[in-house]
Write a structure and sequence with these properties.
With 379 residues, the protein is of the alpha+beta class. The chain contains 8 helices and 15 strands.
């Protein structure tokens, strides 16, 4: 009877320990739901008020947008969901509601969080919208070689790549107007901040006030170098390399051309790394030519390149020549019995004549054999 009672006491004690352990484990487990995962994500922003032109965009404007916006970097003002579901109206709100936006971020994941750097990897103009792909876009790049097989073996193996980018569609009320790249950046400002300094802007901030002011207003001065012109006007639409007129043997100059008719056209001529002539052809105005220096006495340093072998610049030796390369440490002496300087033959040293090649029928010289009187191994 006592043993049976003791057994029940052990069983009840074991059950109590299990219940206590289960309660402790349950108190440490928590579940992450959509509400907790999307807490703090908001789509509230102040719409832009940018005046838009009425003329529709042409083919040249589309090419300029692609050239000036692709590979541009900015920072996300809000979490960007992976996929192609984000639509922004020009000077208006997001087409996606807050609940749908949070659901996309929760189910698909975020391609970029608040404040993360994003890169424009593709841009397309279609009808009344501009499609901007960020961080690779929402779809994996298709490769037709994946559908080709040789002897039941695929030519290109599927690496299981997954798209992790996002897509923002900028929609207009009518056809896409003839807007520039800075205006597109301003319309995307509620989502992406492109206000980061570019390399040209950072370089322009180091220039004197006169030159910096000209760069800020996109004006080219005689005496600027290539980098200053790129900071002021960007990449030219075309480049020419020609000889000076009337002198076929003269120096070659380079000419950068900006603009096209009926817009104002700039012809920038370089001699080396300096602007020597600026021609401005405006519609209905006489040709404006600048040939005098306009840098106000500022002379930018000429580009230079330094080439050296090794980590240490070679110094002259006693005979005026650079020391040869070595694997010894600085100050380490030459090993005893080591090889010295290589002696090259000179004209003063006699050179042994080359024996003639034996011809057919000439006697073959005897080869000394072991034990013969001509054997060189005998004493």
């Amino acid at each position: 009877m006592a043993q049976r009672k003791h057994r029940w006491v052990l069983i009840l004690g074991f059950i109590g320990c299990l219940l206590l352990f289960s309660a402790t484990v349950q108190s440490q487990v928590f579940v992450v739901g959509e509400k907790s995962a999307t807490d703090g994500i908001s789509t509230h922003f102040t719409p832009t008020h940018l005046p838009l032109p009425t003329a529709p965009m042409g083919e040249r404007g589309r090419r300029d947008l692609v050239r000036n916006l692709v590979a541009e970097q900015g920072f996300a003002h809000c979490a960007l969901p992976m996929g192609a579901g984000l639509t922004l109206h020009a000077n208006g709100p997001l087409e996606t509601s807050l609940a749908a936006y949070q659901e996309m971020v929760y189910k698909k994941g975020a391609a970029a969080g608040l404040g993360d750097r994003v890169v424009v990897t593709a841009l397309t103009v279609k009808g009344n919208r501009i499609v901007v792909d960020l961080n690779g876009g929402p779809y994996v790049k298709h490769r037709f070689l994946r559908h080709i097989q040789l002897n039941d073996n695929p030519v290109v193996a599927n690496q299981g790549e997954e798209a992790t980018g996002s897509r923002v569609t900028l929609v207009f009320e009518g056809p896409v107007p003839d807007i520039s790249a800075p205006e597109v950046k301003s319309l995307l400002a509620p989502i992406i901040d492109f206000g980061v300094k570019t390399t040209e802007q950072a370089y322009a901030s180091t220039l004197p006030p006169l030159v910096k002011q000209a760069v800020d207003v996109h004006e080219v001065l005689v005496g600027m170098n290539h980098r200053m012109v790129l900071a002021a006007l960007g990449e030219p639409e075309s480049k020419l390399r020609e000889k000076s007129s009337g002198n076929p043997n003269g120096a070659t100059y380079e000419e950068w051309i900006y603009g096209h008719q009926p817009q104002t056209i700039h012809f920038i001529k370089f001699s080396g790394d300096r602007v020597t002539e600026v021609e401005i052809a405006a519609l209905g105005k006489p040709l404006e030519i600048h040939t005098k220096d306009e840098m106000g006495g500022y002379n930018p340093p000429a580009p230079s390149r330094e080439m050296a072998m090794g980590d240490q610049a070679p110094g002259p030796s006693a005979d005026g020549q650079a020391p040869p390369p070595t694997l010894r440490k600085p100050g380490e002496p030459l090993p005893a019995g080591g090889s010295g300087k290589v002696q090259f033959p000179t004209d003063k040293q006699p050179v042994a004549p080359i024996p003639p090649v034996p011809t057919m029928g000439s006697p073959i010289p005897a080869v000394p054999t072991m034990g013969s009187p001509t054997d060189p191994r005998l004493p």
